[in-house]
Design a protein that fits this description.
Length: about 300
């Protein structure tokens, strides 16, 4: 058994990041049809700054991360992962960066001793990892927080459940043009993620920064109560937010995209507080496998 219930890992690169994941607006009405099954291929370990790598790897050791299974497409019942004649259980795990590096490290250093063969696949968007979990192409995934998981189940009729908290990377407001909140001027444009859960999360960050106030249960820019600087908001797929910084005064970017894009702590204007956050990234499986012996 690899998984142990421990506090979620807080990933940080100096005072750069603390760590989490975001996703794109492709939500439909309740129980929307699932995309066609996707067969992911393993992804190589990504080259990232050495200090970040050490912290990621140290976090794996501290949290003893492990993985379970998922099941058949379109049903609420999951099937168990396959175990060969030698007693080795193969687990197909989907993830987004930096979780892929965490998983690849577990595979190279800890999985064999636990009787596991981890097959890690990297995804650059946030729909396929859950649909692949639902249809059985994956056994587990590591990329989403609980609000996103709940929204995805609601919108797509899936049966995905969390196993345990793993790591938390906060959102941050970045800019390539200014260095402080005071430099944001009247009428400036701010880019934010377009998916339901992270758009609200981004607006809450802007509210805490003192740039706007929100109506109760705000979901998007239409729910802004006061906007003293008459800020404009550009809603974009999370993966495009780092590139959009060239065209806006500032933008809210998740660690999943900030690190690969080369964004630095010096470009952060305001960062999400980690205290009491619901946005810790989770290891998730299909319902029925949350108590699997491979965990």
């Amino acid at each position: 058994m690899l998984w142990r219930s421990r506090p979620a890992l807080l990933l940080s690169k100096s005072e750069h990041f603390a760590a989490d994941a975001s996703q794109p607006r492709q939500f439909c009405s309740a129980a929307a049809p699932l995309p066609a099954p996707h067969q992911p291929s393993p992804a190589p370990i990504r080259s990232i700054p050495l200090r970040t790598t050490k912290l990621l790897l140290a976090g794996v050791i501290a949290t003893a991360v492990a993985f379970t299974a998922a099941g058949c497409a379109g049903t609420a019942t999951a099937s168990a992962p396959e175990t060969n004649a030698s007693g080795v259980t193969t687990l197909k795990v989907g993830a987004s960066f930096p979780a892929t590096d965490i998983l690849n490290y577990v595979e190279s250093s800890q999985a064999a001793a636990a009787g596991l063969d981890l097959q890690v696949s990297e995804f650059s968007e946030y729909i396929t990892p859950d649909t692949s979990l639902e249809d059985g192409s994956l056994d587990a995934n590591l990329y989403q927080h609980l609000p996103f998981l709940n929204q995805f189940n609601k919108d797509h009729g899936t049966h995905i459940v969390p196993v345990g908290k793993v790591y938390f990377p906060p959102l941050a407001l970045y800019s390539k043009k200014i260095t402080s909140l005071d430099a944001i001027a009247s009428g400036d444009t701010i880019s934010i993620p377009s998916d339901v859960t992270n758009e609200r999360r981004a607006l809450l960050l802007l509210e805490k920064a003192g740039l706007i106030t929100l109506n109760p249960n705000a979901a998007g820019p239409a729910d802004i109560a006061t906007n003293p600087k008459n800020l404009q908001f550009q809603e974009l797929d999370a993966a495009t937010l780092p590139r959009a910084l060239d065209d806006v005064k500032a933008g809210i970017v998740n660690l999943t995209y900030a690190l690969p894009a080369g964004l630095t702590s010096e470009q952060q204007i305001y960062k999400e507080d980690v205290t009491g956050t619901p946005y810790t990234n989770l290891l998730a499986v299909k319902s029925g496998n949350e108590n699997n012996a491979a965990i």
